[in-house]
Design goal:
Blueprint: E1 3-9, H1 11-20, E2 26-31, H2 34-42, E3 46-49, H3 55-58, E4 66-70, H4 74-87, E5 92-96, H5 103-112, E6 115-117, H6 123-127, H7 135-147, E7 152-156, H8 163-178, E8 183-188, H9 194-202, E9 208-210, E10 219-225, E11 244-247, E12 259-262, H10 269-279, H11 286-299, H12 309-318, H13 324-330, H14 337-348, E13 351-353, E14 356-363, H15 369-377, E15 385-392, E16 395-402, H16 409-417, E17 422-425, E18 429-435, H17 447-467, H18 479-492
Parallel strand pairs: 1-2, 1-4, 2-3, 4-5, 5-6, 7-8, 7-10, 8-9, 10-11, 11-12, 14-15
Antiparallel strand pairs: 13-14, 15-16, 16-18, 17-18
Helix pairs in contact: 4-5, 8-10, 8-11, 9-13, 10-11, 10-12, 11-12, 14-15, 16-17, 17-18
Length: 493
């Protein structure tokens, strides 16, 4: 909860209080005028009489996130701002100039404040972006968190990262270095999708690929982009402390970090990073702008899937700095023979249950081919949901797509596979990773048998879960069914 403090409340300050009082979080006003304090109290505002320039009065508030200095006297505002800086140096400070400040006074107030409001400005309109739900204050907190890292920051994408995760990590790396913090963009797994490889190569992105079990003690801080929990779709220890989380996926569990930016209404994490860059007044270089723009386009399927106003605004900000000719080259790479083979097996092995299609492609050499196969199969007449899966290195990888259906695919995948692996995603695009467990002990020459066993379990589980979930908001009634599926899976194993 955001804690707010107003020191001094003149005529303009009183008008601001009327807006701030409705924001979520707390607000306390300190003013010398007894009548003004009484008026505020009758209006339901927490107000106390005291000297707003006195550090002891300011220190009575143990923690302040956002502070306003809004008296009518410029000199009193200057003293109150200094008191606030002495007691709460990390608070985001908004200062009003007051009546008739001198040029020197304006310069002093501007230097003390994070946001300086001159009498000629449109005050209320200028303050509205500072609500706790907007990026201005959030960006200030992100910048402060990055600056506080005492050493190198490790920025971790999810396993086998996609363009949105890659671009977001590179952009955050640049933000960290802009405040003097060394940073490195890292990932586990592989970048095997041909478009993703072309994306990294053409933009000459410097990413560090870590092996499972790698020593990460060299990092003084950790950041997660495009996912929100260590040990879930990455190879980090589950209990490791995290400093920064930036993600657009809706979490299904509490997210813990020093700084958290989760905006599930936005279509891409790249949009969030673009927003932070714009708030800081940083013009991204061509490489970063092109990467973020491509990340947005991929995750929103060229602005047709789960897109928001924020995604369009981010694209508008990035486009003048991006190299669109590079994007054209990224989007037309050659397709490997392995990918064509995976798509072919997905077509041959497909099973239909009404409008829902599932297909097991068996052993994988390139897990990114699953997503391409799921997309291709979704074009079949009469099909609204596709699930394509295969196995490699002791894990079953699952990719699912949906269109024109009431099924929330992300929630459906969590219900079907969340208790036996990691699963989730969006309403129309989701995935899962499931350890083979005992099934992984089947010998290599028995791959056909393994495909049959895994195929039956995954397909039956998914079909039954879709049938039992008539709508995107009807999830609680399926808990017992999911538990029953777990028992059946254990019996099959």
């Amino acid at each position: 909860m955001v804690s707010r403090l107003m020191l001094g409340c003149g005529s303009v300050g009183h008008a601001i209080v009327e807006s701030v009082a409705d924001w979520s979080g707390s607000l306390v006003v300190v003013d010398e005028s007894e009548s003004r304090v009484e008026t505020l109290r009758t209006e339901g505002v927490s107000a106390t009489r005291g000297d707003p320039t006195d550090t002891e009065v300011v220190a009575q508030r143990p923690a302040v996130d956002l502070a306003f200095v809004f008296g009518d006297d410029p000199e009193q505002n200057r003293q109150a701002a200094r008191a606030l800086r002495d007691v709460h140096p990390d608070a985001y400070l908004v200062v009003y100039a007051g009546d008739g400040p001198s040029t020197e006074m304006r310069a002093d107030l501007d230097e003390l404040a994070d946001e300086f409001i001159d009498p000629g400005a449109a005050l209320v309109d200028h303050l509205l972006p500072l609500t706790d739900g907007d990026t201005a204050f959030r960006t200030h907190e992100l910048q402060r968190t990055l600056r506080d890292i005492d050493g190198k920051l490790g920025i971790f994408m999810h396993d086998n990262p996609d363009p949105d995760a890659i671009a977001s990590a590179v952009a955050l790396e640049g933000m960290a270095e802009s405040v003097g913090t060394e940073a490195e963009a890292c990932y586990f797994g592989a970048i095997s999708h041909q478009e993703n490889r072309a994306f990294v190569n053409l933009l000459d992105l410097d990413l560090r690929n870590l092996e499972v079990g790698a020593d990460i003690s060299e990092f003084a801080g950790l950041a997660l982009v495009d996912h929100s929990s260590p040990g879930v779709n990455d190879q980090l220890p589950e209990e490791i402390p995290v400093d920064v989380v930036i993600d657009h996926h809706p979490p299904n569990h509490p997210v813990e970090a020093r700084f958290v930016d989760l905006r599930s209404g936005v279509g891409a994490t790249s949009s969030l990073l673009a927003d932070h860059l714009e708030q800081l007044g940083i013009s991204p270089d061509e490489r970063v702008a092109t990467g973020l723009l491509y990340g947005i386009r991929v995750d929103t399927k060229d602005f047709t899937r789960e897109v928001s106003v924020a995604d369009f605004e981010a694209a508008s900000f990035l486009l003048p700095h991006a190299d669109t000719s590079t994007l054209d080259r990224v989007e037309t790479p050659s397709i490997s023979a392995d990918t064509f083979e995976t798509i072919s097996r997905a077509i041959r092995n497909r099973e239909l249950d009404g409008t829902v299609l599932a297909s097991c492609v068996g052993s994988l050499s390139d897990r990114d081919a699953l997503a391409q196969a799921a997309d291709r199969l979704l074009n079949m007449d009469g099909v609204t949901v596709t699930l394509v899966f295969g196995f490699m290195d002791g894990t079953v990888y699952v990719s699912a797509r949906a269109r024109g259906t009431d099924v929330d695919l992300g929630e459906t995948m969590r219900a079907a596979f969340g208790q036996i692996g990691s699963a989730g995603g969006h309403a129309d695009m989701a995935g899962a990773q499931i350890p083979l467990g005992l099934l992984g002990e089947v010998e290599d020459d028995e791959e056909e048998s393994l495909s049959t066993i895994v195929g039956d379990i995954i397909t039956d589980r998914f079909f039954e879960t879709v049938r039992s979930r008539p709508g995107p908001d009807d999830f609680d009634s399926d808990r017992e069914r999911v538990a029953a599926f777990d028992i059946q899976l254990a019996d099959d194993e």
